[in-house]
Design a protein that fits this description.
23% strand, single chain, nine-stranded mixed sheet, globular, 299 residues, TIM Barrel, Alpha-Beta Plaits, alpha/beta, 11 helices
C-alpha cells in the first residue's frame, strides 16, 4: 500500500510518449520552489479553497477532531489537529475542500494504469512514478514497475535522488528510465534551500549512472538560487564526467503551484521571483552543450 495523491492520465511531461503518472505522497526535501506542496507530507491532507467557501459550517460540524472553526472573520483550520480524514470534504457542497492523498494498493493502481495501455504502445509511452519522492515508497514502486514491465509497459522513475542504496536496488531492476533531479552541487547551499545536504543525492546519481539504466538529469532553474553560469558549469562538468547521461533537461522556473500553498495554510517563499527570459535559458543550455551533453529546455 502507498499514499497516492494523484494519478494523471495522458501526461506528456514525465517521460517519453503518452504516460500515466502516479504521484506518491511524501518527500524528504522541502525545496522552497516546490510546485507540489501537497506532495511533501506522507499522510493525507485537506486543502481549503477560501474563495468558493459559503461558510455554511457543515465542515466544522463534521470534524471530529474539532480542527475547524467558523467565525464572523471566516473559516480557520488547525493544521496540527487535522487528521486528514476527509469528513469535511464529504459534507462540503461548495467543493471548497479537497483531500490530497489516499491509500491505494498496487492492484488498484495497476488497474488504473492498464486503462490506457493502447496509448502507451501507440506513442512509446508508459507509466511514471513521481511525487513527492517515489523512493520513499520503494517496495510499492518496485512491485508496480515489475507488473508494468511484465505487461510490456515502459516504466519511468522521476526522483529527487535522496534515497538509500537499498531502495535503489529494489526499484532499478524494473525501471526503464530514470529522470533524476539535480538542484545544486554545494552541500551547504543545497541544505539551505531544500532542508537536506546533497551528499546522498550525489551518491545516488553516481549509482544510477553506473547501472546502465537510461538516465536523464533534470535541473530546475531557480533565479538567484542555482542559475548562475558558474554553478551550471560545475553541474555540467560533473554530469559529463559519468559519460552515461542521455541528456539534460533544464526546467524553467514557474509559479504554477503558488495557489496550493494558501490552500494548505502555508506560505510560498518565492512570490517575488519572475521566470527567466528565453534568451537567458538558451544561454544556460549552451553551457551543457559545450560540455558535450544534449540539453533541452522545458517550460
Amino acid at each position: 500500500m502507498a499514499i497516492v495523491f494523484n494519478i494523471q492520465r495522458f501526461s506528456v511531461q514525465d517521460g517519453p510518449g503518452i504516460r500515466t503518472t502516479v504521484f506518491i505522497k511524501g518527500c524528504p526535501l522541502r525545496c522552497v520552489w516546490c510546485s507540489n506542496p501537497e506532495s511533501q507530507k506522507g499522510l493525507p491532507e485537506v486543502a481549503y479553497r477560501e474563495s468558493i467557501c459559503t461558510r455554511c459550517g457543515n465542515c466544522a460540524a463534521a470534524c471530529e477532531a474539532q480542527a475547524i472553526s467558523v467565525t464572523a472573520k471566516g473559516v480557520s483550520v488547525d493544521r496540527k489537529a487535522c487528521t486528514g480524514c476527509g469528513a469535511c470534504v464529504d459534507v462540503c457542497a461548495a467543493g471548497a475542500r479537497t483531500v490530497y492523498g489516499k491509500e491505494m494498493s498496487v492492484d488498484e493502481v495497476f488497474h488504473e494504469v492498464l486503462r490506457d495501455e493502447h496509448f502507451y504502445r501507440n506513442s512509446g509511452g508508459g507509466v511514471s512514478a513521481c511525487g513527492g519522492e517515489p523512493l520513499c515508497q520503494a517496495d510499492f514502486v518496485a512491485e508496480l514497475f515489475k507488473r508494468c514491465q511484465g505487461a510490456g509497459i515502459h516504466t519511468c522513475l522521476d526522483t529527487c535522488g535522496y534515497a538509500e542504496s537499498g531502495d535503489w536496488e529494489k526499484v532499478l531492476p524494473y525501471t526503464s528510465l530514470v529522470l533524476f533531479d539535480l538542484k545544486l552541487m554545494d552541500p551547504v547551499a543545497h541544505r539551505r534551500v531544500t532542508g537536506k545536504s546533497n551528499e546522498k543525492i550525489l551518491r545516488g546519481l553516481k549509482l544510477v549512472a553506473g547501472t546502465g539504466v537510461p538516465l536523464v538529469v533534470r535541473i530546475p532553474l531557480i533565479p538567484g538560487i542555482n542559475d548562475s553560469e558558474q554553478m551550471l558549469e560545475q553541474m555540467a562538468n560533473h554530469i559529463a564526467s559519468f559519460g552515461s547521461v542521455r541528456e539534460v533537461n533544464l526546467l524553467a522556473y514557474h509559479r504554477y503551484g503558488e495557489g496550493k500553498y494558501k490552500m494548505l495554510g502555508r506560505r510560498y517563499r518565492l512570490g517575488e521571483l519572475e521566470p527567466q527570459e528565453d534568451s537567458r535559458l538558451e544561454k544556460l543550455a549552451n553551457i551543457f552543450r559545450a560540455a558535450g551533453l544534449k540539453c533541452e529546455i522545458q517550460k
